[in-house]
Design goal:
The chain is built from one helix and seven strands; from the N terminus they run αβββββββ. A hairpin with a 2-residue loop joins strand 4 and strand 5. The longest helix has 4 residues. The two termini are 23 Å apart.
Length: 114
C-alpha cells in the first residue's frame, strides 16, 4: 500500500483521476476530506433527462461552471449560470438544475456528499 492509499476512507491525501468513482447521477467523486468533498460534472449533455426534480440535501454545495450553461432553480428564482460563474446551494434548500449547453462544473460539498 502506498502512502497515498494509507489514509482512511474519511479523508484522502491524493486520488488520481483513474481512481475516481462515479456517482449515481454521473458525477465523478474526486476527493473527500474530513469535512467536505469535491466532485466533477464533466461534459454533461443537455437532454430531456438532464433536468433534476426539486430536491434538497443535508450538505451545502459551492460550485463553479468551467464550461457550458445551466439554470439553477433555487428559492423560487431561476438563476442563469455560464462559464466563469460560481453558485451556492445552502444545506436543506430545495433546488433543481437544468443543463442548457454541454456542461463541466466543479463542486465542493460540506459535509461530504459521498
Amino acid at each position: 500500500m502506498t502512502h497515498d492509499q494509507k489514509q482512511n476512507q474519511q479523508s484522502q491525501y491524493k486520488l488520481s483521476r483513474s481512481e475516481t468513482q462515479h456517482g449515481k447521477d454521473g458525477q465523478h467523486h474526486l476527493i473527500k476530506g474530513e469535512k467536505g468533498s469535491v466532485r466533477l460534472w464533466h461534459n454533461e449533455e443537455p437532454s430531456a433527462n438532464s433536468d433534476t426534480t426539486l430536491h434538497s440535501h443535508a450538505y451545502e454545495t459551492l460550485g463553479y461552471v468551467v464550461s457550458g450553461r445551466m439554470e439553477l432553480v433555487l428559492s423560487g428564482q431561476t438563476i442563469a449560470l455560464e462559464a466563469g460563474d460560481s453558485y451556492c446551494v445552502p444545506s436543506g434548500a430545495e433546488h433543481r438544475f437544468h443543463i442548457l449547453e454541454t456542461l463541466t462544473a466543479v463542486e465542493t460539498t460540506t459535509p461530504s456528499a459521498f
